[in-house]
Design goal:
By secondary structure, the protein is α+β, with helices and mostly antiparallel strands. It contains 3 helices and 4 strands. About 20% of the residues lie in helices and about 10% in strands. The radius of gyration is 12 Å and the shape is globular. The N and C termini lie far apart (about 25 Å). About 30% of the residues are buried.
Length: about 110
């Protein structure tokens, strides 16, 4: 099992989750974070740190987000690793509760 970052992260990209990850399995893109499922140790420390509730256990992933498992894997394979928190985008709070953001995902 692994944890999956879903569309709530898009254009918010809060990095609170990155700081607590003991295995540094987060990868950073222009406006989204991804978890490498091959590196995640299922510790769940990241879940409560996400202020927009974007991270789910693979077992608890809602049906509409199942495809984010493949998205996380694909993007983690091409993006750089992130191990320290950074400032969120200046408009992150404005995007926090916007539904259906997948179309805004920048690869």
């Amino acid at each position: 099992m692994t944890f999956i970052v879903t569309e709530q992260c898009i254009r918010c990209k809060y990095t609170d989750c990155v700081e607590v990850c003991p295995v540094d399995c987060f990868y950073e893109g222009p406006n989204f974070l991804a978890i490498n499922p091959d590196e995640c140790i299922d510790c769940a420390l990241c879940v409560p740190e996400c202020p927009v509730n974007a991270i789910y256990s693979e077992d608890d992933l809602p049906a509409e987000y199942k495809h984010f498992t493949d998205i996380n894997k694909k993007l983690a394979d091409k993006w750089p690793n992130i191990t320290r928190a950074k400032a969120a985008p200046v408009d992150a709070d404005e995007w926090a509760n916007v539904p259906s953001k997948e179309g805004y995902l920048e690869e």
